[in-house]
Amino acid sequence: MAGQIPGSILFCCDHNAIRSPMAEGMMKHFYGRVAYVQSAGVKNDMEVDGFAIAVCNEIGVEISKHRSRSFDEMKEWGDDLGSFDLVVALSPASQRQALELTRIAHLEVEYWPIMDPTGLAEGREAKLALYRQIRDQIRDRLIQRFGPPLSQAAENSAR
């Protein structure tokens, strides 16, 4: 059942290179400026994944300019986790990190178990198919949680 969109949302995963940038990009594309949206990873040791960029481009979502960042970098840049209304963890490690970092702050942490597609398929077409599956899982969770996309263009890409 769709709920109200919080004022600020942080998506997080392990490296901020696949799942959380996809979620951030789709959230911004589907819901515009309704919420302040960012993403982060437990680590920042990878660039945004090319397959993630490709499958997001297929639905009109641009993530190629995304710069991966960690929870520690967020803190250094003044984006404290406590300033977010909702943290959506897309991996077990990011859920643990978010809960640890927010244990003294009263904020909602949701866990959406989205599989990491890294290294799970051989060959370009198989990888693209797997990444599309991950993209579609995230898209479906966004729509389930926040309701239908707000713009017609975003609605078409949600199909």
Structure description:
- This is Low molecular weight phosphatase family protein.
- Residues 7-148 form the Phosphotyrosine protein phosphatase I domain.
- The structure is a single chain.
- 42% of the residues lie in helices and 13% in strands.
- The protein is an alpha/beta fold and 159 residues long.
- It has a single domain (8-150), classed as 3-Layer(aba) Sandwich (Rossmann fold), CATH 3.40.50.
- The protein has a 4-stranded parallel sheet with strand order 2-1-3-4, sandwiched between helices.
- Helix 1 (19-31) packs across helix 5 and helix 2 packs across helix 5 (124-146).
- The radius of gyration is 15 Å and the shape is globular.
- The model has no long low-confidence stretch (mean pLDDT 88).
List the helices and strands and how they pair.
Blueprint: E1 8-13, H1 19-31, E2 36-41, H2 50-57, H3 71-76, E3 86-89, H4 92-101, E4 108-111, H5 124-146, H6 152-157
Helix pairs in contact: 1-5, 2-5
InterPro entries: Ptyr_pPase (IPR023485), Ptyr_pPase_sf (IPR036196)
Keywords: Arsenical resistance
Protein name: Low molecular weight phosphatase family protein
Key terms for this structure?
159 residues; alpha/beta; Rossmann fold; four-stranded parallel β-sheet; 6 helices; 4 strands
